[in-house]
Design brief:
Distance between the termini: 12 Å
Number of helices: 2
Protein name: Arc family DNA-binding protein
InterPro entries: Arc_rbn_hlx_hlx, Ribbon_hlx_hlx
Helix content: 40-55%
Largest sheet: none
Radius of gyration: 13 Å
Oligomer: single chain
Organism: Nocardioides faecalis
Number of strands: 0
């Protein structure tokens, strides 16, 4: 997609209960699991003051992605 920053791929291991909870939440929000995890990380980084608001492309998209 033009103008979209390159995405960094990283391996991720999750506790099965956490993975299932994230999957259900993503489904409720009409997002992919990947987009849901990115949104959760983005929101946590902003709250912790580790990422300025509007930083990193101002967050993941609000709709389905994958």
């Amino acid at each position: 997609m033009p103008g979209r920053p390159e995405r960094k791929q990283i391996p991720l291991r999750l506790d099965p209960a956490i993975a299932e909870a994230v999957r259900r939440w993503a489904e409720d929000d009409l997002r992919s699991v990947n987009a849901q995890i990115e949104k959760l990380l983005h929101d946590a980084l902003v709250r912790a003051g580790r990422l300025p608001r509007g930083g990193a492309g101002s967050g993941p998209s609000e709709g389905p992605e994958e």
